[in-house]
Amino acid sequence: MVEVSVVLPTHNRPELMRLGVESVLAQKTSVTGEVVIVFDACPIEVPDVEVPDGWVVRGISNTRSRGLAGARNSGILAAEGRLVAFLDDDDTWLPGKLEAQLRRFEEKPDAIIVGTAMVVDDGENRIVRRVPSDDLTHEDFLRNRNPGLHSSSLMFRREVLLGDLGLIDEELPRSYGEDYDILLRGSALGLVTVVNEPLVRVLWNGQSYYFGQWAAYAEALQYLLRKHPDFATIPAALGRIEAQVAFSLASAGQGKEARTWGWRALRHNPKQVKAALAIAISRKLVTPQTVTRIVQKFGRGI
Length: 302
Description:
Blueprint: E1 4-10, H1 14-25, E2 33-39, E3 55-61, H2 68-78, E4 83-86, E5 91-93, H3 97-107, E6 111-121, E7 126-129, E8 135-136, H4 138-143, E9 155-157, H5 158-161, H6 178-189, E10 191-203, H7 214-227, H8 235-251, H9 255-268, H10 273-282, H11 288-296
Parallel strand pairs: 1-2, 1-4, 2-3, 6-10
Antiparallel strand pairs: 4-9, 5-10, 6-7, 6-9, 8-10
C-alpha cells in the first residue's frame, strides 16, 4: 500500500523538475510512496532517476483545466497514497521534511493540513521564513497569508481532499492564490499545523509562472474576496487584501482603479503600506519593479 503521494505539476521545466523529484526520493523514510508528475500541456517525459525501494515515479497528463489548479487535481485524483503532498516544479524538499510531517500527523491526528516553514532562494541569498505559530486558525489566515507556509510544504489526507475540503479551485483566475484558498478552506474546517523548521527550498528568481502577472493577481484577489466573505468581518484583514488588489492594479497600469482600491484599503486599515505604495505607483512616483526588488531582497513578496 502506498503511504505518501507527492503531486508535482510541471510545464516545460525538465531540469528544475528533476531536482524536485530527486529531493523527494532523497528523503530518509521507511514509508512507501510515489511521485506523480503531472505534465501540463507538454509531453510526458519522466526523468531517469534512481528510485529507492518502496517508491515509484510516474508521469501523467493533466486531463483537467490547463494550469496549476487543474494539474494538481489531476495528480490528486490519480494518487494512491493515504497522504498527498504538493511540490512545485521549481522547488525542492530539504532533508527530514517528509519524516517531520509524518510525525506531526501522528501527533495531531485531527489535523486538516500539515505544512513546514521554508527557505527562500533568490540565487544570491537564502532567507529562512518561519510561521508565527505552529498551529494556525481561520482568523490567522484571514489576517495574514502566513507566507512562510508555501504550497510546496503542504500535506493532506487524501480522503479529506476528496471529501469535506475538496479539490483545488479551478475557477481561480490563472490558478493564482490556489494555495491560499485551500488554506482558508482548510482552516475553516479544522486545524492547520506547521513543522516550523525550514524544510522546503523555494526558488524566487523570476522563474515563477506568476512573476509580474499583475492583472491576473488583481483578478484572482478579487475572486478570493468574493469567495471568502469572512474577510469583511475583520477590517484589517479586508484592508490587507484590498491593498494587494490596489498594488496589482497600479502595477498593471490601471491607475484610477488602483486608487479606488487603495483609498478603500486605507479606510479599513490605515497602516496598509501597500495601499500607499499603490497610490504612489498610480501617480508614477515610484515603479512596481523597484518596490518588488526591494521586498524580495528580504525574502518577501507583494
